[in-house]
Write a structure and sequence with these properties.
By secondary structure, the chain is mainly α. It has helices at about 15-30, 35-50, 65-75, 80-85, 95-100, 105-120, 125-130, 135-140, and strands at about 55, 100-105. Helix 2 packs parallel to helix 3.
Length: about 140
Amino acid sequence: MNATLHTGFRVPTPIDEAMATRRRLNDAIDVYGNGYDDLRASAIEAIASGRAAFWTTSNYSAARTVDLPLALNRGAGIRAALDEALPAWCANQRPVALDTIVPLNRRAAVALSGAYASFGIWRDEEELERRALRDCRRAVA
């Protein structure tokens, strides 16, 4: 049953949110053209478990940034995953690596926004959520 406020606006249900997240996943795969089976499976598992779910703008030639969302989808924190993927000798690449992460749901966007903030960079959740949308990519291209 869908809850309705007295103003007539419908309150999103968990099913609505899961469907929107799944739509963002499909859009991200279409936009970035990198439908990796392992990453897709980990994203679907994160979505089904109610965790933050992520995708990447990278391809297999950038193995470190492809592995990053795999760790995130398994529940690793963004800073911890960055530290593991990019050791101390390439720590200056960590803020740049954030630009390859595509949040698929609100939890992911909030976590990614916080990770940017930890580097002194401002990115709001709405901006980050648009990374996964087909129309956003077409408008920029």
